[in-house]
């Protein structure tokens, strides 16, 4: 038994904040942001919009694209770093919003920007083990709620959004392999300033040593590409599409170079929505599926790197 993606969906909140608009509030410029990151704008959730709202919108699209009904879903996993509440999980909130009443398991996964790759890997294993046949996997974030809008080296990077897929059981892959990793020694390079058990004064916001994170990300993503290809007996030239985590165009270009791949075969959406953490890979995938770039039989490599540090890949044949 294997799993394949049968439908994708994406949602970006209506409100767009351009680099120019941001430059009116912090000491930066459109030129600086575009040159260093490739980001031109980000979407921001409305005051009354939560992560589960964004996730539900993306899920509805994926359900429709897959041609299933909500109550066919027998597993819900949401990757998020910005859950609506401490509990219930965002996955349970989405289950209720989608009016899924069949009692299917629903839970969140926290692996920051690698969250979607982690969640997809877990859902793949559920299906391969025969414990699910139709999984809803979502990456959704309202990072604007944990952004320090006065820190110019940081606030330029983030945005809100959600991406979703329906993963169904199939006799041929589909998902060929997933590779997941973490190294918990680098908290100080990328973390949120407070939380529940550790407490912390005032608003909890993201803190990052951008330069150091950049270097580790490039090195780590190089290594996961090598590992994924070697473990699955594939050559660089076997990969038709790279769907990378959308953090920074320069990190994406470095991975494409490692693969010897033209940027024409790399899905880039970071310019439109900035880094949406767990939502970034499924948003990019949804874009390339809907505009017809990814076609049946294409080999797709998805990869991500994020806080933790966490990183991973999903290798699949589009079926
Ligand atoms: N606008 C203008 N100048 C800025 C700026 C901004 N938004 N942010 C920082 N600078 C300045 C710095 O103050 C510094 O000035 P100085 O040389 O006078 O001290 C200079 O630009 C260079 O700063 P540096 O931090 O070395 O820049 P950088 O080239 O590393 O770019 C990031 C900064 C954040 C864009 C880059 O490090 C990055 O993208 N890192 C990876 C972050 C990431 O993707 N994290 C998520 C991983 S999932």
UniProtKB/TrEMBL annotation:
Matches recorded under InterPro entries: ACP_syn_III_C, ACP_syn_III_N, FabH, Thiolase-like
GO BP, one annotated term: fatty acid biosynthetic process
Domain named Beta-ketoacyl-[acyl-carrier-protein] synthase III C-terminal: residues: 229-318
Domain Beta-ketoacyl-[acyl-carrier-protein] synthase III N-terminal, residue spans: 107-184
GO molecular function: 3-oxoacyl-[acyl-carrier-protein] synthase activity; beta-ketoacyl-acyl-carrier-protein synthase III activity
Active site, UniProt feature: 113, 245, 275
Main localization, broad class: cytoplasm
Region (ACP-binding): 246-250
SUPFAM superfamilies: Thiolase-like
Pathway field: Lipid metabolism; fatty acid biosynthesis
Subunit and interaction comment: Homodimer.
HAMAP family, sorted: FabH
Annotated function: Catalyzes the condensation reaction of fatty acid synthesis by the addition to an acyl acceptor of two carbons from malonyl-ACP. Catalyzes the first condensation reaction which initiates fatty acid synthesis and may therefore play a role in governing the total rate of fatty acid production. Possesses both acetoacetyl-ACP synthase and acetyl transacylase activities. Its substrate specificity determines the biosynthesis of branched-chain and/or straight-chain of fatty acids.
Protein name in UniProt: Beta-ketoacyl-[acyl-carrier-protein] synthase III
